[in-house]
Amino acid sequence: MIRNIVKIDEDKCNGCGLCVSACHEGAIELINGKARLIRDDYCDGLGDCLPACPVDAITIEKREAAEYNEELVKKNMEKPVHTGGCPGSALKEFARSESNYSESDYESKLKQWPVQIKLVPVNAPYFDNAEILVAADCAAYAHANFNQEFMGDKVTLIGCPKLDMTEYSEKLGEIFKANQIKSVTVVRMEVPCCGGLENAVKVALSNSNKDISLKVITISVDGHVM
Predict the structure, then answer these.
(1) For residues 93 and 125, is the Cβ–Cβ distance under 8 A?
(2) Concatenated DSSP letters for the chain?
(3) How do strand 181-189 and strand 130-136 relate by DSSP bridges?
(4) Residue 134, phi then psi, degrees to nearest 5
(5) Pairs from 145-152 (Cβ < 8 Å, separation ≥ 24)
(6) How far from each other are the two terminal CA atoms of the chain, in whole angstroms?
(7) 146-199: per-residue pLDDT in tens?
């Protein structure tokens, strides 16, 4: 029969395994580090896995496929399943102390995991009513007091437009549209390639059609705020 069914682009798939957990029918597994649809009759074609994919590797296509079989799915879901998902991409939130810090206090201010722009789910609960820090990944190494000075109570997202060779504006735009965001702070390095990060945020904010305040901070290569 011709029906809607999941299609996975293995070239885009980063092997995070989030779609495996999102699929309530057990139709997707990680095989050799890539997400794959293991059986057509396990997939209901509704696409619950699509929002979980951080790299947009999953779409819905219409093609010849076996009819969805709810009874087989129920039997399959009763079996112990190892998803094979990457533990490093599992969603986490951290409770941090509100106490003041001394110069000798090195407690992290990171509130959530993952932090890479490419890996964060668009609808992660920590985005609700959040202040967001979008930072160049070099900045935390260059500026000695990065955690305390810039992160605070913000949700931290990091990336490098030169190394990732990707356009962040689309992903950031989806985050801004889907959530109630209080403000966005960009911390970038002075090097020209870091301008791509700042520009991506500005494009994403413009496309979101929301009035979200933006602050841009530039760090010199020797670690000082410019």
Answers:
(1) yes
(2) -EEEEEEE-TTT-----HHHHH-TT--EEEETTEEEE--GGG--SS-TTGGG-TT--EEEEEEE-PPP-HHHHHHHHTS-------GGG--EE-----S---TT-------EE--BTTTS-TT-GGGTTEEEEEEETTHHHHSTTHIIIIITTSEEEEE-HHHH-S-THHHHHHHHHHS-EEEEEEEEESSGGGHHHHHHHHHHHHHHT---EEEEEEE-TTS-B-
(3) parallel
(4) -105, 115
(5) 146/187, 147/108, 147/109, 147/110, 148/101, 148/109, 150/185, 150/187, 150/217, 151/109, 151/110, 151/111, 152/109
(6) 63
(7) 999 999 899 999 999 888 767 789 899 999 999 999 999 999 999 988 888 999
Residue owning tokens 């209901």 = 44
Place of tokens 């682009």: 9
The token duo for 159 is 């990336």
Q: Which amino acid is at 83?
A: T
Q: Is the pLDDT of residue 35 over 50?
A: yes
> What integer is the mean pLDDT of 20-24?
82
User: Please, which residues have CB within 8 angstroms of residue 97's CB and are 6 or more apart in sequence?
Assistant: 107
In this structure, the number of other CB atoms found within 10 A of the CB of residue 167 comes to 14
* Tokens coding 5: 């069914």
The partner residues of 188 in beta bridges, in order of sequence, read 218
pLDDT-derived band of residue 81, with 50, 70 and 90 as boundaries? very low
Amino acid at 30: L
- Give the Cα separation of 18 and 16 in Å (integer): 6
Q: What is the mean pLDDT of the chain?
A: 86
